[in-house]
Amino acid sequence: MMNFSNLIIAALNLSKVFEVHIDENGKTRIAGIEGYFAHAIFTEMNIEYDIVFPEDNEFGREVNGNWTGIVGMVQRGETDLAIGGLGINENRFRVVDFSFPYATDGISFVSLKPSEWSKAFGFLELFDLPTWMLLLCIFLLATAIFFTVLKDTISYFEVFHNLFGSMLRQPLILHIYPHENRLLTGTWLLFSCIMSSVFSGALLSFLATPSNVETIENFKELSEAVERGTHRAYSGKGSIVVPFLLNSKESHLRQLGKTIEQNNWYIKPEDALNNPMKSLESVIVGSSAYLRFLYGAHSTVLISEGNGYSISMAFLIKKGFCCSSQLRKVMSRMVGAGIYDRYFKLESFKYFLMEQTNEEKIKIGSLSLKDLFSAFCMLLTGWGISFLIFIGEIVVANYST
């Protein structure tokens, strides 16, 4: 049993990760994933500790050789340790030491899932462009064939109008008497029936449950979307995310980090719990494990497929700390015994149950005017064109007389 004097620990008060509570007796109690893990370590080492918080409430950024946040507090010797999902990297290693790594994490991003079509004429995308082009070609070819078979007994426009009406399940009024041409008519009726039924079925399915639109699933797509100006990528202020992106070998990651830094797209660490994604254009880039912990139970949130990179997580230790070797020894034993994984899974399960209770159910309602806006647009457009043609015919008739 070891007996060290009180330690001063720098941390951020992050819900579910490292929570600090004061009981009725004024004694500090820590909770959360890393809070429980740290408490188990300090209990094993028989260490008393005090928790302090940085004034800027940041993890830590390097500014002119000095560090902000909890990293800066350890660098200046104001605290002995720093805890809070801190990754091991070269820049930090120059000013602080690290404990035994207790987890491996990566970088991912989360965004809101677009749940329905936002375009008024989204129903046109039920078929892709090649399918629409093929249908148009077949329709024009069929019109030319029927016009030729009828041998000038009907105008080209009337043939076009009748065939188009048959596609909309209207009767086909074409006087084709020779029996050898009935096969042509039957083939067209079968084709138009199948295509109209397929489109009607897809349209009804779309109106009942709108399909998911295309989403951003990896960092390359995210970087391109940010560069186009359609999305904004936010990161925790003082986290390791932006420095990694700026120093990445991948050009799209460097461009993404540069854009975040230039536009100052940062959020405070505690804001990650307060639904920072206010719109479909907002994307949060951060710790893969933490993002999955927060949003894994949300059906409306998309988590990126691949990690941007992997990094080991550890406690920060001030240079010359007397108990570094003992701390690393105890941490290695606890990590090997699965203590950290146990706390992580336990807190994740508790948070999952809480979020499942709060998760909104799918809203079921009647079709609104917005859902049928495109149909009314086409109707009014057709009436407008018909009215203009009607006025034109009257003007031409009066001019002729």
Outline the secondary-structure elements.
Layout: E1 7-11, E2 19-22, E3 28-31, H1 33-44, E4 49-52, E5 62-63, E6 66-67, H2 69-75, E7 81-83, H3 90-93, E8 97-98, E9 103-112, H4 129-149, H5 156-167, H6 182-208, H7 219-228, E10 232-236, H8 241-246, H9 251-262, E11 266-267, E12 282-287, H10 288-295, E13 301-303, E14 310-313, E15 316-317, H11 324-336, H12 339-358, H13 373-400
Helix pairs in contact: 1-12, 4-5, 7-9
Domain Ionotropic glutamate receptor L-glutamate and glycine-binding: 18-76
Protein name: Glutamate receptor ionotropic, delta-1
Keywords: Cell membrane, Glycoprotein, Ion channel, Ion transport, Ligand-gated ion channel, Membrane, Receptor, Transmembrane, Transmembrane helix, Transport
Total of helices: 13
**Principal-axis shape:** elongated
N- to C-terminal separation? Answer: 115 Å
Uncertain spans:
none
SSE class? alpha/beta
Relative helix content: 40-55%
Number of E-type strands? 15
Q: Report the β-strand fraction as a percent range.
A: 5-15%
Radius of gyration: 33 Å
Q: Sheet bearing the most strands, described?
A: 6 strands, mixed
Average pLDDT, to the nearest integer?
A: 80
H/E element order: EEEHEEEHEHEEHHHHEHHEEHEEEHHH
Structure notes:
With 401 residues, the chain is an alpha/beta fold. It is 45% helix and 14% strand. The chain contains 13 helices and 15 strands. The strands form 4 sheets. Strands 9, 10, 11, 12, 13 and 14 form a 6-stranded mixed beta sheet that branches. Strand 2 and strand 3 form a beta hairpin. Helix 4 packs across helix 5 and helix 7 (219-228) crosses helix 9. The radius of gyration is 33 Å and the shape is elongated. The mean pLDDT is 80.
